[in-house]
Amino acid sequence: MREEERLALRLARRHESLGGLVDDLARRVGFAKAAKAVFSLHKRGALELIEPTPYASALSYLLSVESTWFWLLTALVAATLWLVFHVQGPPLIYARYVLGSLFVLYLPGYTLIEALYPRAEDLKPLERLALSLGLSLAVVPLMGLLLNYTPWGIRLAPVVASLALFTEGMAFAAVLRKHRYHRLRLEALRT
């Protein structure tokens, strides 16, 4: 353990907030070293960072910074839908290819994995990526099979709509599960 990290652990006992700890540590070793030391301690589990005011409801959690991934994903799905239904020629056709591939090969599995494993500690990033790709390759054909037995059939609009609904539904379920985990974790830390 580096000297900055040992100093950060000693100072953490005196400070209630992360801002106060980083300010105090930054005065002694500089901001860059202070931030790096706090981040390193947090990643190793030696320093627990908790939200001082828990999110009262799932809606407040959904509107927080921690749910930014949900809003980015929703914007990505909306952009993909727009490109699929409105763009026919170059140069935006290439963006359609890229976002369409992401939409089919990654996003359904990613949102399913986020819903099944809401904690960041559950899976390593490479495991999340591999499972996301694998589950997308399993979910998309199953959705096509189900669509085959509906009156809409397997056409562009029903396939894209069902993938968008599945992706957004799983993302929303993931946000609800992450909120529940966040709330229970804070209650456990406060007792």
Question: Would you mind describing this structure in some detail?
Answer:
This protein is mainly alpha-helical. The chain has 2 domains: 3-44; 58-190, no CATH class. The chain is built from 9 helices and no strands. It has helices spanning 3-12, 18-29, 31-44, 58-62, 68-86, 92-105, 107-116, 125-148, 156-190. The model has no long low-confidence stretch (mean pLDDT 89).
Termini gap: 29 Å
User: Residue ranges: pLDDT <50 for 5 or more in a row?
Assistant: none
Rounded radius of gyration (Å) = 22 Å
Share in helix: over 70%
Mean pLDDT: 89
> What is the domain total for the residues?
2
Number of strands: 0
Largest sheet: none
User: How many alpha or pi helices?
Assistant: 9
In percent, how much strand structure appears in the residues? under 5%
Tell the overall outline: elongated
Write the H/E string, N to C. HHHHHHHHH
The chain-level structural class is: mainly alpha
